[in-house]
């Protein structure tokens, strides 16, 4: 027994090519808008909407800080940086080593591959 065609199926079959293309473009726009909205939401969770205002707010906050508060903030930053360095030590050192070698090669060109002065290859631990 053949299936009964729904109204939407009949409508879809009767549409012209222009209408089909227009509908396809419309759905594409909707998908892009949804994706952009999602990305915007994710990025705003990480950083604020207006970085200039944030910078002004932080500058104002720093002006109003007392010396003790400033010292406490510096100390907490120092502790955070130290723990971050200890956690990601190998990655940081490898990154700096790569940077040194690329700078050396860019400075000396192809000679860098056979010069006896090679960049520091030591992996400091």
Describe the structure in your own words.
It is a single chain. This protein is mainly alpha-helical and about 120 residues long. It has 5 helices and no strands. The longest helix is centred in the first third of the chain and has 30 residues, at about 15-45. It starts with 6 loop residues before the first helix and ends in a 17-residue tail after the last helix.
Question: Would you summarize the structure shown here?
Answer:
The protein has 125 residues and is mainly alpha-helical. 74% of the residues lie in helices and 0% in strands.
SSE arrangement:
Layout lengths: L6 H8 L2 H30 L4 H14 L2 H21 L1 H20 L17
* Helix and strand sequence: HHHHH
Radius of gyration, whole Å: 30 Å
Count of alpha and pi helical runs: 5
Distance between the termini: 77 Å
Report on the biggest sheet: none
What is the residue-mean pLDDT, rounded to a whole number?
76
Low-pLDDT residue spans: none
> Helix proportion of residues, in percent?
over 70%
Strand residue percentage: under 5%
Structural class: mainly alpha
- Give the overall form: flat
E-strand count:
0
Salient structural properties:
125 residues; mainly alpha; single chain; 74% helix
């Amino acid at each position: 027994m053949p299936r009964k065609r729904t109204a939407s199926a009949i409508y879809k079959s009767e549409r012209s090519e222009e209408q089909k293309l227009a509908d396809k473009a419309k759905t594409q726009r909707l998908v892009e808008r949804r994706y952009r909205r999602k990305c915007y939401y994710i990025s705003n969770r990480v950083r604020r909407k207006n970085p200039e205002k944030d910078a002004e707010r932080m500058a104002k906050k720093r002006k109003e800080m007392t010396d003790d508060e400033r010292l406490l903030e510096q100390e907490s930053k120092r502790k955070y940086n130290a723990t971050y360095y200890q956690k990601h030590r190998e990655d940081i050192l490898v990154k700096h080593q790569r940077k040194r070698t690329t700078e050396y090669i860019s400075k000396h060109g192809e000679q860098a591959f056979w010069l006896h002065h090679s960049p520091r290859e030591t992996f400091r631990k």
